[in-house]
Structure formats: C-alpha cells, structure tokens
Specification:
Length: 184
C-alpha cells in the first residue's frame, strides 16, 4: 500500500497558535486543534499568533522541511497593512534588503496595493484618525522570527495587520477564515 501525502491549506485566524496544544498557559488560547481534527499532520513552519492567513500542515517530514527550511528559499507572500504610506525609499530598502539586529534580510519583492478584499479581523486593528494606513504586497524567501513586522518597522512603517497569502504554489484563494482544505 502506497503512502499518500496529506497537505492541508489552513486559513489561520488572528489569535490562534500555530500548534495543536497550549499546555502550561494560565489562560486558554485557541490552537490548531480548535479547527483541524486530522491526526498525524503537523505545521510546516509557523505563523505568529497575531498574524493571519495561510498555514500549511502535512504528514510528510520531507515536504515539511522543504516548505519551512530557509535553504530552499520558498517564496512566502504577505498582504501587509502598514501605518503610513511607504515612500519609494522605503520600498527600495525592502527590495534591497533591510538591516535587522540579526543581520541583513534577503531582497524582497514589494509593491503598493489597493486594500484587499479580506475578512474582517477580530479584534479590528487600532485606527488612528491622524495617521493614514496603506497596504503592500511583500514576498520574502526566508523566515526569520517576526521578519515582515521587523522589516516594515525598520523602514519606518509599522505593520498593523499581516496576512500570509501564499507559500510557493499554494494560496488562500477560496479558503474562508478558520477553514481548511486538502491540496489536490
């Protein structure tokens, strides 16, 4: 009998941990087990609790490594709502690589976009009447801890909302928040 790889595309809501248990926490937090009841699958990479969007899960260790290991440089695309309106200098800095405390980032692909048609975030982001906000589409090929947030902050435009839209060939297209589907 041949082993059939399972690959799950999950649209992780804000506030959900990228793990199946939350042992030792004094307060109960939502985990993947609140949404996915499929034994033997594990996240291929992580998505911060305060980030939303695509999280891939698989039962294949090799595939998990290929997706999450930075040496494979799999592109990850994010829709990022930032405070302010990034100027060309900030976008150029992101394209060339940004110096963070743990070193230079690899060059990113970035462009300004219109506000995307996304689900409402719960809770909503904090809106400041005196400071505009805008959206960028950012693709990176590495995965440092909180990297996108640190990159936008380093250019002077802090992240307000972060949605991972795609990883490699897989995207959130057609997957509602909190829902998942098996990859074909």
């Amino acid at each position: 009998m041949a082993f059939v790889t399972k690959l799950i595309l999950f649209n992780k809501p804000y506030g959900v941990l990228s793990q199946f248990t939350d042992q030792g926490s004094p307060t109960q937090r939502q985990t993947l087990s609140n949404f996915i009841d499929l034994p033997g699958v594990y996240p291929a990479g992580r998505l911060d609790r305060d980030s939303e969007g695509l999280l891939l899960l698989t039962d294949d260790g090799r595939l998990q490594a290929r997706i999450s290991d930075p040496k494979f440089k799999m592109p990850k695309t994010y829709l990022v709502q930032v405070e302010g309106e990034p100027d060309e200098d900030a976008l150029s800095a992101l394209r060339e690589g940004v110096r963070l405390k743990d070193g230079m980032t690899r060059p990113a692909e970035v462009k300004r976009i219109d506000p995307p048609d996304l689900w409402p975030r719960d809770p909503p982001i904090r809106i400041r009447k005196t400071v505009a906000d805008s959206w960028i589409k950012l693709t990176i090929r590495e995965g440092r801890n909180r990297q996108v947030r640190r990159m936008t902050a380093a250019t002077g435009y802090p992240t307000l909302r972060l949605v991972r839209w795609s990883i490699g060939e897989w995207s959130l297209h057609g997957i509602a928040q909190g829902q998942w589907r098996l990859s074909e």
